[in-house]
Design a protein that fits this description.
- With about 80 residues, the chain is mainly α.
- The chain is built from three helices and no strands.
- It is globular, with a radius of gyration of 13 Å.
Amino acid sequence: MKPVIESYLALAGEDIALAKKIFDAFPRHAAYAIQQAAEKLIKAVLSAEGIPVPAQHHLGALAQMLSAVLFVDYTSYY
């Protein structure tokens, strides 16, 4: 596995672990950490597919890029 993919996955794991720890006391912050994890997971898949990963943080745009790889229309979820 490419180092960049491993990095995205490790960082996503950290975000998820943080969200679990803080959920009861700070649910909004936990939700943000989960959003960050989702972003990193999408970027890991894009990287694995050889698609250049943009320096952006818009989940909708990233999901749309992902849908091109997976042939699924995720735009109806927004």
